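Is this the right way to post structure tokens for a design question? Let me know if I should format differently. Anyway, here goes:
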């Protein structure tokens, strides 16, 4: 069995900008992963038999081929759960959200048609930054949400869909790229509709 998910990867400079939001001096109540692990999850599959990898690669390739590339950017901070002690801290996305939503929708439809369990709730594009620990006693970090999260351009291209394996250990997860699927190139008409 392998633990799997589909995601859009983030460039290193975007991961580094997100990593600077970690209030390292007071993060005991929250698990902040290494910034190099940050990504945009499109479908979490959990434990799957290794023999289903070929099918998952076919689904990923089809969803990517029928979806167009786009430009995304980091958006506003947010959280899931009660405001006083949120379960998850995240950064939203802006930019070409239509292209991202279409990719996620095609992927989810392909997975559901093949019998994989997909989340019923609506897709909310975001990047998970931290999760509250089971042992947490305090509230949200005092610096959350940050008043002005980013000072520089945080636009980045969305050009590929990636299938990852997630290996868990006491030191934290390790993500292994199993397959990458190129999205269809943006067309000039798609660029002009964004403006």
């Amino acid at each position: 069995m392998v633990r799997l998910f589909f995601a859009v990867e983030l460039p290193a400079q975007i991961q580094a900008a997100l990593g600077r939001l970690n209030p390292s001096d007071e993060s005991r109540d929250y698990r902040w992963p290494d910034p190099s692990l940050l990504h945009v999850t499109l479908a979490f599959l959990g434990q799957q038999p290794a023999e289903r990898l070929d099918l998952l690669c076919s689904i990923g390739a089809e969803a990517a081929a029928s979806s167009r590339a786009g430009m995304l950017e980091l958006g506003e901070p947010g959280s899931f759960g009660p405001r006083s002690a949120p379960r998850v801290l995240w950064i939203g996305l802006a930019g070409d959200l239509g292209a991202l939503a279409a990719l996620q929708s095609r992927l989810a439809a392909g997975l559901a048609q093949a019998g994989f369990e997909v989340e019923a709730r609506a897709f909310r594009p975001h990047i998970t930054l931290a999760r509250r620990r089971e042992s947490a006693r305090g509230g949200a970090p005092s610096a959350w949400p940050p008043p002005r999260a980013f000072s520089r351009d945080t636009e980045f291209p969305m050009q590929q869909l990636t299938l990852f394996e997630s290996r868990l250990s006491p030191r934290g997860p390790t993500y292994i790229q199993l397959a990458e699927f190129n999205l269809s190139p943006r067309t000039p008409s798609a660029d002009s509709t964004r403006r």
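Format looks fine. Someone answered above. Worth noting: The first strand starts at residue 2 and ends at 9. The beta strands are 2-9, 30-31, 39-48, 70-80, 88-95, 126-132, 155-158, 160-167, 174-182.
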